[in-house]
Known about the structure:
By secondary structure, the chain is mainly alpha-helical. The protein contains 13 helices and four strands.
Amino acid sequence: MSAPGLPGASSRSPRAGPPRGFSGGGRSVTRPQRVYIVWISPAVRCLPEVAPLNALWNHLIATQDAPPMWLIALAGLAALAVVAYPPSWHVSRGLITIAHEGGHALAAVLTRRRLHGIRLHSDTSGVTLTRGNPRGLGMIITAGSGYVAPSLLGFGAAWLTSTGHITLLLWSVLALLACMLLMIRNVFGAISLLVTGGAVFAISSFTKPEVQAVVAYAAVWFLLLGGVRPIVELQSKRRRGRAPDSDADQLARLTHVPGTFWVVVFLLVSVAALAAGAWLLVDLPALLPSVFAPA
């Protein structure tokens, strides 16, 4: 503001001009329009492309009805017969070996050991090659994960099956087999995984939900029951001196605890997984009231 009394100065306060939008003095003053620019995220613009992924996810998490209880029990008896009968066990034992070596590989990765490869042999044996500290906790966990892996995998599969997530179980198995295939280092092992994965894919893609459910229950029973027998065979071989470098003996050298102790640990874990998995599959809480109900 100019000082009073100076030339060109005014002691009056300046008069406020007309408000915006007021028409006066022959001139119209209009309020300028505001222009808003809206940025749309590419994620929003691509929403139609996400629809197939949503459909796939809904397909994976969809639930299926469980088969009749007599069919679940029959699947368990069939799995028991396969495990107990020597000729069928010799053929099917390779599936347990896949889970066994997969357990070693997963434990090695989780304990940050360097996984070099997996080999599966025609005599149903296998080996997982890792590199790292030869005497650390990671080595102990890796060595101890093989014999309990089939039973723990069976327990997890029993939980998915009992909740009706058959499709999710089958696709999870395919994903695990695909990851394992990347680390296979021999031809027989690659063929074994491709044949197993192809069978799982065919069941999940070309069979009815009822058939998928029965196959899933039978496979889970096989994992739970088949996870126990190799541990019994291991102790039998150790007694005859035919398994000096078994997982139990490696653990004995790492921990200075007798190998028999580790065999007992393997067996307890597998039996506990079998009992818990059977509880989930048979649904004993729902079955017992009907069994003991008065006639």
